[in-house]
Amino acid sequence: MSRPRLRAALLATALTTLLAGCGIRSTEVPTDFGPGPSRVPCVMSGSSIASQSSGVPVQVFLVCAAQLVTVDRSVRIPTEKATTDRVRIAQALLDELSHTPSDQEKQAGFATDVRGGTVVGGPGKGDPEDALRFSTSPEDLSAFALAQVVCTFADSAAAGDDREVIMGGPGDAPLRRYECTQEVRQRPGTVAPPTETVK
Fold first, then answer.
1. 150 near 163, Cβ under 8 Å?
2. What distance in Å separates the CA atoms of residue 179 and residue 191, rounded to the nearest whole number?
3. Chain centroid to CA 34: how far?
4. Which of 2, 40, 121, 199 has the greatest CB tally within 10 Å of its CB?
5. Is the CB of residue 14 less than 8 Å from the CB of residue 6?
6. Angstrom distance (rounded) from CA 93 to CA 151
């Protein structure tokens, strides 16, 4: 074999050996660190209704990841004859919103900003028939709490036929018509429910 051919053969052999050594070698170090952390909040493995006593199935809006997300609940609607169905439903929903989220809901990131103790009444003299009077003014609620109440009521029989909610404080406090919009559900802390004063 001539020298040029010998050099070419040696070069080819060396290049083949070099390229073969560039692969990723296997390692004996364990690399299984388990599944990655979950980045999907606001999702529960099962319905929260299952852990509650029997009653009327409803949906309430809780706060999760700075948004409003519906959660299934079960409530008992009282049967007092002194109040209308709309008022009883509104009170039951308001009480449900004020309950501390279950352990399962907490683990999924749910919270509520609604505090207990508020009583819902029906319309006063001269009010529209679908008005709801609160023992404390709805304007005193936090931004998140007001959005929770408005959106929960709007999706229930507590709202009017137009899915809007008329609410006001006690006595002759001004009544306002509230609306739950997609923007409110997405940014309840910064976007207030659209309102219109009811004369």
1. no
2. 12
3. 29
4. 121
5. no
6. 11
